[in-house]
Amino acid sequence: MHKSLPCRNCAEYGSRQFAISLALRCVILVSVCVLGRVTPHQALAQSKPAGAGASSLCTHDNAIEIIRQQMEVSRTFDNAIRRITVLLRAGDLLWPFQQENARAAFTEALELAVQNEKEKREHSKNSPRALILDMQVADQRYVVIRAVARRDPAWAKKLIQQMLKLDRQTAEHASTRDSYSEVLTAYRLLDSANQLLATDVNAAFDLARNSLNYPATSEITRFLYKVAEVNQQAADQFYDQALVVYADRPMREFLYLQAYPFAFPEGGDMPTFGFYTVPVKFVTSNALQRRFIQTLLRRAQQALEVPLMKVTTSISFRVQRTFCRY
Q: Is 202 exposed, middle or buried (0-12, 13-18, 19+ CB in 10 A)?
């Protein structure tokens, strides 16, 4: 009797896993029907006489119906991330044909993502936090917003503003200011911006500009170099904006801006260390170098007159290196 329960649980778990796998496979297969993609096997089939081997099930209406069914099946999933994955894929496939239903799929996915992030924060509230580890775990809210941005950038922009506003309100009700969460938000905004650059530059810059409301991280330099690969003028202009924003922020933030104007491939001993890929055709700007150095000298003079904080040896070394390179 005692042995039957684990077996029954295993069978239930196996059935659930099978359902999840089947749902994902069906969504992929449906995309072939809906989008009209042709595989090598289909290309060979098309060379045969009409009607030979053709399936009467692979029609537009059947494809839409299967997507709807898979959205329903996803509601039986215990794993929120897998359910979000199915909903995002369904929303993307439905968008050209049934935009209202596609929006409903994206909205449902976002609601799940918000709940998932809330539960994660509750579970980790009294646990030790590691910034580097948390950076590797995707915030599903950003995953959903990136998917929306590929279809409706204006809607995605509204969603990101709503999400950040909610986060700020949550932080205001907290007993202490959570700088850890602010750094994580900045990282995730810029990480999403990096991922959107290939499909929607404007949406990517919207996210990057939002990140300037949060502490600087190593990700800002990665974003700048990524933009510079295709448009260094735009990257230089964004750097100029960032320099204005972070000019009077603590040194642990300001010095994240030292790499880009000098084409440094790494960020040095900063709170979060970063290695970067400098574009092959990258051209350093004397104007940006001069502005950074002038700001640094002003900060150094202020520190001598009214020392507000200690500068660590590692940061001092990076400052010296910057002067030497200049």
A: exposed
Q: Which residues pair with 266 in a beta bridge?
A: 275
Cα(297)–Cα(81) distance, integer angstroms = 48
Assess contact for 33 and 70: CB atoms under 8 A: no
Residue closest to 88 by CA, chosen among 157, 41, 146, 162: 146
Cα 285 → chain centroid:
29
How far is 252 from 216, CA to CA, in rounded Å? 8
**What is the tens place of the pLDDT at every residue in 104-146?**
999 999 999 999 888 887 776 666 666 666 777 788 999 999 9
pLDDT in tens, 67-105: 888 888 888 888 899 999 999 999 999 999 999 999 999
Q: Which residue blocks in the chain are alpha helix, DSSP H?
A: 4-35, 40-46, 60-74, 80-94, 99-124, 131-135, 140-149, 153-173, 179-196, 201-211, 219-228, 232-246, 251-254, 259-262, 286-305, 313-325
Total residue length of the chain: 326
Is residue 129 packed enough to be buried (19+ CB in 10 Å), middle (13-18) or exposed (0-12)? exposed
pLDDT digits (tens, 9 = 90+) for 170-201: 777 665 556 778 888 999 999 999 999 988 99
H or E segment at 269?
none
Q: Return the amino acid letter for 118.
A: K
**230 DSSP assignment:** T
The tokens of 116 are what? 């998932």
Among 212, 117, 110, 204, smallest CA distance to 162 is for 110
% of the chain beyond a pLDDT of 90: 48
Whole-number Å distance between alpha carbons of 92 and 97: 10
Query: Residue 222 burial by CB count (10 A; 0-12/13-18/19+): exposed, middle or buried?
Result: buried
What would the two tokens of residue 207 be?
């996210």
